[in-house]
Description:
Elements: H1 2-20, E1 34-35, E2 38-39, H2 41-62, H3 64-78, E3 86-88, E4 97-98, E5 107-110, E6 114-115, E7 121-125, E8 129-135, E9 140-144, E10 155-161, E11 173-177, E12 182-189, H4 191-194, H5 197-204, E13 208-211, E14 223-225, E15 231-232, H6 240-251, H7 259-265, H8 280-302, H9 336-343, E16 362-364, E17 381-386, E18 392-402, E19 417-419, E20 432-437, E21 448-450, E22 457-459, E23 462-466, H10 468-471, E24 481-483
Parallel strand pairs: 3-14, 4-15, 10-11, 20-21
Antiparallel strand pairs: 1-2, 3-5, 5-12, 6-12, 7-10, 7-13, 8-9, 8-12, 16-23, 17-20, 17-24, 18-19, 18-22, 18-23
Amino acid sequence: MKNSKLTKAILAVVAIAAMVMGCTRTQEAFEPEYIGGYPTEETAERMFEEYDYQAATQFYVWAYTMLNNIGMSKGYEKMGGDERSIYTFDKRIQPQHVVMTANTEVVYNWTRLIDLSKGPVVLVAPPKTRGVIYDISCRGLVDTGDQGPDKGQGGKYLVLPHDYDGEIPDGYFPVYSKWSNLVMSVVRSFPAAEGGDEGAVQRGGEMKWYYLSEAANPPENTQVLIGDRPYSQDWPRDAEAFVWIAESFNRDIVPESAKAHLGNMRRLGLIKGQPFAPDERAQRILERAAKTGKGIVLSMAFYNRQKFTRVYEDRQYDSIFYVRNPQFFEDYYEEVEGRTGSWHQLVGNPSEYIPATPGTGAFYMNTFRDSDGNLLMGQNSYRLRVPPEVPVAQFWQIPVYDVERRAMIRTDQNRPALSGTDDLIKNTDGSIDIYFGPEAPDEYEQNWIKTIPGEGWFTLPRLFGPLEPVLDKTWRWNDIEKIK
Length: 484
């Protein structure tokens, strides 16, 4: 019964996507015509139109993760500072901060995109923090903190361009960026470990970066505090997306896996080293490709075909990482679909998905469905029972995100997440019931997150510092149950 309901829901959504977003048959059916085996001129014209449209659509999907990080860097630029600044969410992530699936329990500290074409870069990770260095396409290069080589003690990471052949000085953790010269870094500092938000902000301010050539006298990195100001890393969903991607390729190297795509995109005005100026025909094709690409990406994100990602065989949870390799390469292919589906809803990619040592790192998963396999919708009421004594060294958290922006849900309640650090009502056995819905349950308002009727939502439960029962799955999240 559950599978039948889910199948019907999938078919309905696919049918709507086909009609509304142009995923298939966006133009009337055309039967190619031939004369003596040659295509007619009309046929050739239509076939080239179709080829360019398909090429643009595939390129949009392939490059989608770039938009995530370009949007983040552009968003920080609007906050002030300069290319050297460290951007700190000093009042934690709030609903007016459009950051993909962030959480409210840590203080985030980010760089803008850093250009390795100017030489090797030193990134200083403060002690007692947790972070990652990744490239513009979200390829995880190295973890910092307790899951990284500094083991939570802090340290200097030397990020090297793909073609670097110079000496590597002592005192650094070296890491190569093989596929891009544009990298970013995020560091999470923990209020619980620093005596509160102020201490966590100060700790995040110890994050530094400079070029190796400046090591004798590093320039200052100003810390820009986001505070309560609105911030958005979101990106365009129309032909403007190709403008952003073209800008990044004009700054960056071209990896081997992009060359066929860029070869096709020349016909649509995207030529490395030249201004992106699509003509009227190309603009029309790019607009159509972006709409189709949106439908494809949403399908990859919320109807994941990577079957190995189910976390528990008897629950409705998937790993948030739809790929097996944090750099997205297997022996004979690049994992485009899994990468795109995952990073529609995530920014920053750990280089190790599962903590190697209990009590370090974090254990993530997501769900868009209730216990019956139906999509989570804001007009319904739900309950999640958190078992007693969650086996974590740090804390657990339940955030709620909207489907369209993949950011913290915005309601007049202004509370998009609950965690084990909150003052929550417990059941007699120590378990905790978390409620989701448009109306608060009687006497349980402090355990409730408000949702919006008619709008889908999803959650990404986090376990920070997961202990062995989490990692061996003898401890499990319960499913979210629909209630009256």
